[in-house]
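It is worth pausing here to work through a concrete case rather than discussing structure prediction in the abstract. The textbook approach is simple: state the sequence, then state the predicted structure, then interpret. We follow exactly that order.
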Amino acid sequence: AETSIELEDEIRKEDPPRPGLLVDREIKLLLRGGDLRVIPVIDEAQQIGSSSIDVRLGHNFEVFFANIHGPIDVCDPQPVNPDNDESRYVEIDHLDGIMLSPGQFVLAHTLEYIRLPPNLAAQLEGRSSFARMGIQVHMTAGFVDAGFEGSLTLEIANFGPAAVKLYPGTRIAQLRLFRVSSSERPYSKNTNIKYRGLLSQNKTRQSRDPEVDMIKNAISKARESGRKR
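Step two, the predicted structure:
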């Protein structure tokens, strides 16, 4: 097996480090040096591919119920769902698994806690084995900013023709890592981020966006103006 020193010597030949997609030996070196954290890597030989690293499904899920309160409107100054009963948070044992019916959507998270350095970004993609069953692991939010730290939220949907049972601990997705110029303000140092350091999935926090506050204030003023008339 290659040692960390052998890997480092090999990569030093590429000075400065090449930009773009990282390959297996570069991923291993960054993990062993601590610059990249993926905790835990249970089986390095199994999880690290030629240009990606597999991540596993965590134990916690947010299961949504269909159209309980009608449409979602994060700009409504008076939310229609004060009781937050449109979903249920569940913890699933790896021997039990969770069944996803066709068309069902759940939020989940990676078993691994991930920390990217300021010069690495990542792309989350589903594994082809699950894609062949109709399982999608992210809707559009597959990009991971440089400097990210936390567990990754998985937006899992079943687009296949049959129900599929998912088991925590299985390798459900993969990360492709890209070397970039060091960010001036990496994700972990951005004071406006909403999902820093999470250990589990979290429902949307779009209502915290500053533009949403602007729209809500404008709606309130328009309604107040209408009442005065």
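Step three, interpretation. Residues 210-228 form the longest helix (19 residues). The chain has five helices and 15 strands.
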